[in-house]
Write a structure and sequence with these properties.
This protein has helices at residues 3-35, 39-49, 53-56, 58-70, 72-81, 83-102, 109-139, 159-183, 186-217, 230-247, 251-273, 297-325; strands at residues 276-278, 288-289. It is mostly helical and 337 residues long.
């Protein structure tokens, strides 16, 4: 296995971590105005992700930095082609971060309601756009022989891409509901379980619909070697088990299975892409790969040494954070947000 492949796998791992952790993060923000029936309940909901939400975004920053250093042509083509969509996502995340900090600065209910909806939109917009982005990667976008994106913003919003966006929005909301069922008590816990129970079937339907259409719209499954493939089948089994454990009132197992389904879905996407990183819809030969989009061998070697030192440190620190702050939020103790 060469360094190009190793860095491709590492970036995949970073995105898996991001979608799992930021998945429940976005989901909690999306559910905030609907599950919280009072200001105290909404504060409890926000405190379930309070110690984690900003650290979860580090996975995205690290993945973006790894793309920039290891595969600069991929970074340049993707960030220029998806520029407007990424700006919209960035603005949503900025508003979301400001809302977390400003919400409790004033006791006026109208003030807090405005920031609650800011958190909702700041969570829902990225959740939708990430699904659009992933389906564009596997379906292909217009890239010419100079590795330049030649489409428009509207090129990215085809029906299949929007379906992927709706799936990611619904899937992250399900992840958030399952997370809240583990972190809250009493009425909030029951409401979260009810939302998860109602969401599971639409998410399952959207998942199988997206995969089914993917057989005809993309070449992803044909490239996996085994049709339909062990990993996609395992992802499908995991999402079915989510429903089983929800019905058995096993929220922890349901959250674990949904987490596994997200991880296996991202693995499927990267397996379908490999060795490509972006598919050209104009000519397969113009697709970006881990070789024509990569940095020099010296850069990859240097980065590998840095990653080997610091990635384990980051993982240990984040694991320690979850261990320290894990537990149900009851509202009996002072709330930060």
């Amino acid at each position: 296995m060469d360094l190009n492949t190793i860095w491709f796998i590492l970036i995949a791992v970073l995105f898996i971590g991001f979608f799992i952790l930021e998945g429940f993060d976005y989901g909690v923000g999306i559910l905030l105005p609907f599950l919280g029936k009072s200001d105290k309940e909404r504060r409890i909901i926000l405190n379930t992700i309070g110690p984690f939400w900003d650290a979860n975004e580090v996975w995205l920053l690290t993945a973006g930095g790894a793309m920039f250093a290891a595969f600069p042509n991929w970074y340049a083509t993707m960030f220029s082609g998806f520029y407007l969509a990424l700006v919209v996502m960035l603005l949503a995340l900025i508003v979301r971060g400001v809302a977390f900090e400003f919400r409790s600065k004033h006791d006026d209910p109208r003030w807090r309601t405005v920031w609650d909806w800011a958190i909702f939109f700041g969570s829902a917009v990225p959740a939708l756009l990430w699904g659009v982005a992933l389906t564009n990667l596997i379906k292909g976008v217009p890239i010419n022989e100079e590795m330049t994106y030649v489409g428009t913003f509207w090129t990215l919003l085809g029906p299949y891409n929007l379906l992927g966006g709706v799936l990611s929005l619904a899937g992250f909301t399900l992840q958030g509901a399952l997370f809240l069922s583990l972190r809250t008590t009493d009425a909030l816990e029951q409401r979260a379980k009810n939302v998860a129970s109602r969401l599971w079937l639409p998410v399952t339907f959207l998942t199988f619909l997206t995969v089914g259409l993917g057989y005809f719209i993309t070449d992803m499954f044909a490239r996996l070697g085994v049709n339909p493939g062990v990993v996609p089948l395992s992802a499908g089994a995991a999402i079915l088990l989510v429903g089983y454990f929800i019905q058995r009132d096993r929220a922890g197992w349901a959250f674990g299975m949904n987490t596994l389904a997200i991880a296996l879905t991202i693995i499927t996407v990267f397996m379908g892409l490999f060795p490509r990183v972006m598919v050209s819809s104009l000519n397969e030969a113009w697709s970006l790969t881990i070789y024509n989009a990569s940095s020099s061998p010296y850069t990859l070697r240097t980065m590998a040494i840095v990653a080997a030192i610091f990635v384990p440190i980051v993982l240990l620190y984040q694991a320690w954070t979850y261990r320290v702050f894990w537990g149900r939020i009851t509202g009996h103790k002072p709330l930060e947000y």
